[in-house]
């Protein structure tokens, strides 16, 4: 796509977001004002338009107001898996990202210090619930502390991350001598496999802890648990093209084609396993995992399984996953894949459609309860716009630390 055409689409997205700022009802990145602020800071760096910088600052101020005055008294939880801890930590991750990835003179350390104490208490509560979900469990705060430690190397974050890791190890469910997994208390104790709620999510988090040398406990025990979780996932593989791994651990689940997205499906599972094996320098499963990754990278757009252009469920998320795999491995197959999925973003756009910059979302007709989703970072055109800017200008900050992959 030509640069001028790309910029016209980005500016159309900006107009839609600007006209609908009132629909953002919280301060999260994923579907709130912080995600809008990050969009505008990207837009400022991309277009060098001072009005975009002002809008970013406005949304930061509104986010801080909401956190200070409303969230503790009247929290607005949109979905079953949401939590106050998730919204607070999402807000905090946004502050850390803006302060450390753009050339602005911000210092949000005083806000982060206040967040640290609150999120520490919330982390202890989720540990007691034995819930390690990304959206409502220990990882809802854990990824904030992981990012805080990345930038500050502070002992406070390190100590909390160690509490989380010890709880994860303690709460594992032993399937047999070689396999462990975890259930999800918030979701009826279901056992998920993917990157948003399941074993792949836990493998991904533990891999980051090892990568940053955070754990002060028995490192051999941690690596053993990680390897057994990897083994659990690998043994769930089915001989079914485009549906290698089931969504949940159900003994008699019928094999079928599965979703292809960042949130659910084969790619997130294989991504987490591949990175963990590389980190642990274990070759046992390497060949098979690479075969499955290459097979999955050959999948092409099917709107039944990749539902839109968004980060969470759509083409933008696949773009980020394959781009990260390419950066880690230098394998040309992943280069082809991330460029392919970038182009697929536009296959969910109708230039004649008057709203949402022409982008189409399957859930639009079911979206009366939460109008922010279509404009948001995770589900909507906000995240799509950032993806377009990132591919259009390579010097813009990498987004990974704000995604499920961390």
UniProtKB/TrEMBL annotation:
<dbReference type="Pfam" id="PF05147">
    <property type="entry name" value="LANC_like"/>
</dbReference>
<keyword id="KW-0862">Zinc</keyword>
<feature type="binding site">
    <location>
        <position position="263"/>
    </location>
    <ligand>
        <name>Zn(2+)</name>
    </ligand>
</feature>
<keyword id="KW-0479">Metal-binding</keyword>
<dbReference type="GO" id="GO:0046872">
    <property type="term" value="F:metal ion binding"/>
</dbReference>
<protein>
    <submittedName>
        <fullName>Lanthionine synthetase</fullName>
    </submittedName>
</protein>
<dbReference type="GO" id="GO:0031179">
    <property type="term" value="P:peptide modification"/>
</dbReference>
<dbReference type="InterPro" id="IPR007822">
    <property type="entry name" value="LANC-like"/>
</dbReference>
